[in-house]
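User:
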Amino acid sequence: MKPKITLIGTLPPVKGLSPYCQELLKSLSKKMKVEFIGFKKLYPDFLYPGGTKVKDWNEKPPELKNAKIRIVLTYYNSFSWIWAGLTIKGDIIHAQWWSHVLAPIYFVILSICKVRGKKIVITVHNVVPHENNGINNFLNRIVLVFGDNFIAHNDKNKENLSNLYHIPQEKISVIPHGILEPVSIKGISKKEAREYLKVPQNKRIILHFGNIRDYKGLDVLLKSLKFIAKEIRDVLLIIAGQPWVNWKKYEKIIKENNLEDYIVKKLDFIPPSEVEYYYSASDIVVLPYKYFDSQSGIGALALPFKKPLIVTDVGGLPDFIRDERALARANDAEDLAEKIIDILKNETLLSKLEKDSEKVRERFQWNKLAKETLGVYEDMVG
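Assistant: Predicted structure:
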């Protein structure tokens, strides 16, 4: 008999981890009945550039036959935390853990669930917090202490999770981050996408997509662009995403290297309905992360579009490629430039990397990942 499961996370229209949680819930609900406890209000708007809601997601969570969805949690109402802990129906609680700001909420809910005899599995999305410091590590610990079992997205995460928090490796399962698709994929052509974005048809376009944070290495990509532009005069870098840090340091690099003519900026949150235009317009997608310990949601978002990916050798990013010619050293602008130049100049390699993305996509299909997740639940109840 399958155990009763309760997921804790976010769903649209709240941002947070909603694309991931929505796909996991949809896939699990095809195999079993699932309860979902979600957030009405995740945290104050001032903590999240661009606000906490997504512009063109439906205002209601998805309606699924085997899913009972309860959107009850707010960051400011501790009674909602207590109520959730007391009324959760699942035998196994599957908590998605990604933001140290939520530690008090998770501490209350999971401690009540423990007292009630529930088993708890925690998917740890950021084993080492993006902004790594003693406080964040402490907040991680006070949540992870409640876990009976854990899910990490790659082998490196598993190793770090075990070493940092003294968790036996046999309690940690490795299940990758599934592919993420925007609202819909319409099959927009490169020509149509470039017309929509008002970028030239004859350019070789590099895409840097997603929230701009220090660890994501946009500064390294900008420094590499000065080398790329010398070899490929028709190159164009599209930067699409909301800055979470002061933009001035990036603008300084652009001006110092006279890169203004090689860059198009869309420094704002990109709503799901527009995501396809950016990926379809691009020739390659670059993830130039300087340091990272997880698996990139942006990488997972790129896979449905079958675009060649160039990544750095940190965290789970190498999982997204099959050819080492698309792997650059982190924090090395010249090496990154060399990889990008070699790929953009080699149509055969470019075509191969497109096919590689399609093959990698198969590993990250949600139906397969839901089956693996269900296996974790079944092992927990013996």
